[in-house]
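Dear support,

I submitted the protein below through the web form. The confirmation email said the job was done, but the results page showed an empty box. After a refresh the structure appeared. I'm attaching both so you can tell me whether what I see now is the final result or a partial one.
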Amino acid sequence: MILPTIKLTMPIPILDHNLRFPSVQESDEEGLLAMGGDLSVDRLLIAYKNGIFPWFDGDIPLWWCPDPRFVLDPQELIVSKSMQVLLKKRSFYFTTNKAFREVINHCKNVKRRDQDGTWITPEVEKAYIELHELGFAHSAEVWQDKKLVGGLYGIKMGKVFFGESMFSLVSNASKYAFISLVEQLKAEGIQIIDCQIYTAHLESLGAKMIDREAFIKTINQLI
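What the results page shows now:
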């Protein structure tokens, strides 16, 4: 995802050591809610539980809750005919939580079109590895000839999966990982996957925009 250019048209609350966030209704037009604070486990879990996520490319954390929100209902996953062929042939070997550190490191370092850098700073990487070690952050991996070639990671809380980032080193690898993970999450009872910000890639897989109020109401019921 490409971080939007921030134009402060209204005062943005600055977080301190207290683990509290403003109401998501106070987000600006871009969805920016607050800045500052830290990436402690407790703060991150409170953020996700309230539909808020960190996204920044500097030293100061920025916290977002955009309206509308881009989500996928696992029951509405779209699998193209070409992907059905790859899945049937088992063109990749799929695993979960086998290489979390490698997945987030690839997400941090992979070159992306129209992006000069990454929002996954060493501080972000460390925070999500800690969340993984505590059982909150999960990774999905696809392998080819025993080499990690694609994957993604995110946070699972209750019946909600909050997707964070994905990478692909070969054609269709990230899509294969995503589809395989969605099918697994569906079997586990996950009812909504948060994709955060619109991408054509995920729209082609069935993700759609919903009203933020509806999103918050849904995750409150599912977490």
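Response: this is the final, complete result; the empty box was a page-load delay. The domain at 14-67 is CATH 3.30.70.3550 (Alpha-Beta Plaits).
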